[in-house]
Q: What sequence folds into this?
């Protein structure tokens, strides 16, 4: 297990932040850290996402900040330049994996099927984002995957909320859950 995976196993929830406001991103990250959530994922779906990563990286060094919704190697490189300490994608991309590995960063690609999990696992990835979690079968699907992929852990994201979080976290193959409900866009 990498240092980042160990940290994820301790915090158990990875808050996702999506905002165009750098000050809002800093405030959210600070509040989350005050509550013991020392990791955040800034999703690359806003025009200032890279600036938000950079601001958190520079101003809140106690927070491990990563980039989410990384779709290609160009975004991966930009996120790394901005200070991202890990990368997350909705699916698997070999070029993003190469970029992450060259930078010495963890990469958590999204996988929703046994075929995708097998492909990522056979490339040496043992912690994967399970996305979209609820739409892809949720807890029963993760239980089924656990029977076959005993050396793979998941970060389910998509459809996770306060009412079903404990159900996911109770699974032995769930390292942490992605938490967009913690930082709604409004």
A:
């Amino acid at each position: 297990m990498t240092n980042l995976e160990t940290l994820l196993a301790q915090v158990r929830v990875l808050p996702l932040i999506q905002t165009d406001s750098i000050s809002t991103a800093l405030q959210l990250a600070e509040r989350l850290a005050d509550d013991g959530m020392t990791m955040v994922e800034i999703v690359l779906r806003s025009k200032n996402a890279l600036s938000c990563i950079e601001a958190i990286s520079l101003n809140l060094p106690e927070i491990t900040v990563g980039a989410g919704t990384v779709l290609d190697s160009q975004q991966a490189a930009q996120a790394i330049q901005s200070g991202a300490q890990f990368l997350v994608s909705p699916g698997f991309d070999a070029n993003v994996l190469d970029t992450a590995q060259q930078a010495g960063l963890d990469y958590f690609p999204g996988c929703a099927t046994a075929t995708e999990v097998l492909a990522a696992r056979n490339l040496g990835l043992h912690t994967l984002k399970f996305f979209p979690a609820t739409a892809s079968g949720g807890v029963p699907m993760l239980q089924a995957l656990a029977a076959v992929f005993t050396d793979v852990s998941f970060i389910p994201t998509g459809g996770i909320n306060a009412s079903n979080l404990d159900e996911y976290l109770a699974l032995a193959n769930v390292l942490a859950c992605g938490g967009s409900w913690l930082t709604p866009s409004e």
Notes: The first helix runs from residue 3 to 11. The chain has a mean pLDDT of 96. Residues 110-177 form a domain with the TIM Barrel fold (CATH 3.20.20.70).
